[in-house]
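Run log, item B.
One chain of 442 residues. Sequence copied directly from the ordering sheet:
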Amino acid sequence: MSVDVTGVDRETLVRPIQTRSKYTIAVLLAALAGIGVWLYFYLQQLQHGLVVTHLGDWGSGGGVPWGLYIGAFIWWVGIAHGGIILSAAVRLLGMDTYQPVARMAELLTIAALSCAGLYILIHVGRPDRLVTSVLPAWPTRVQWSPLVWDVTVITAYFVLTATYLLLTIRYDVVRLRDRLPDRFEPLYEALTIGYTETEDAVVERMVWWLAFAIIIMAPLLLHGGVIPWLFALLPSMAGWSGGVQGPSFLSIALTSAVSGIIIVAAAFRYAYDWEELIPLQVFYGLSKWLGFFGLLFLWLQLQQVITGIFAAPTTLQHATEVKLATPIYWVAIGLVLLAELYVFAAALKAELFSIPRIVAVSVLVLVGTLIEKTLFVVEGLQHAHFQLYDAVPGVYVPSIVELSSVLGAVSIVVLFFLGVSKVIPVVELHAIEGDHEEVGDR
């Protein structure tokens, strides 16, 4: 299946920059309200400390030291990694069908990585601890600490993605400059400094190699490597340890990312009448990818359950049984399974498919994967091999302070897209030109 959008004019491409709708203003106000709610609760955390959350000491102290904050961190990193994988695959594998949403995926990566960094900031309690504790420890801990590896590779990934995005933006800004607002002239001058048309072929090669590096890093070092290593390399935590965590994390990342891209693309399509620019076939194709990655996620969950209850070590069996007895786990699995049923039903009967339905399904998937990742963190801590206390471990339920952070982070992403869409095109010019040269000798 291929999608031809080369008949779309440039005015359509810059419509978000040139127009202001009531819909956009309403979304802006809602995003600001969401950020305001989170800031209200976060200021309470700054004032009183992490005691306002339901995080606590292990054992008789009640609860766990890691909860929704770390679960959401993993979730956002997964969305970021999956998003840039899609964008890189469009360039590397010639998946032109998805070119209209490739830059949206890149922007989603930047926004999601920023939210992941925000969760590290709010989880340490006092923000100054990043300067007084984390940064000074980096030179001496990077050799052996998976946590410092995590910070290192995420930073590298952010730089790669930002460079990738910047190089592709230069081409568009130069050719659309007469349609872009004059008030951002200093920014456009900075983005295109030193630009000449002779650099296009060189930039195309550079972007290809950056995409190649991103594709290699994601499964080997990021959500298929370093991020799950933070947990899988701890044999004292029965629910975390094991080689299946790498593939499991990667499947959740890709499932969540496709869901996020569907929602973002649908929002722009609806707000700016981009039916021709982002046709129905794009969403239909993304739904199939969502179905595939979602099925992989469920299959890996089944693998962990089977190996955890059949002749497993005592502590692993206990951790698995506790997970299966937790209703919220089945809520997460049920949400993803419900999405799978719809995707496969729509694949068999196309009349069932619609953009509002696939957006609703994507929301269900995002909620389900966030629940699963948070439960993964919490259950892994509560049911370790060792037992520090004789008392029954405390029960963890996310507090309103922690829940408000999810609202705030989502609102930040919405605000990011609203702001960026008023400055640069969120769809590449190449998507409507169809005449850019292929680079054969890389």
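Observations after the first pass:
- The radius of gyration is 22 Å.
- The CA atoms of residues 19 and 381 lie 50 Å apart.
Flagged for discussion on Thursday.
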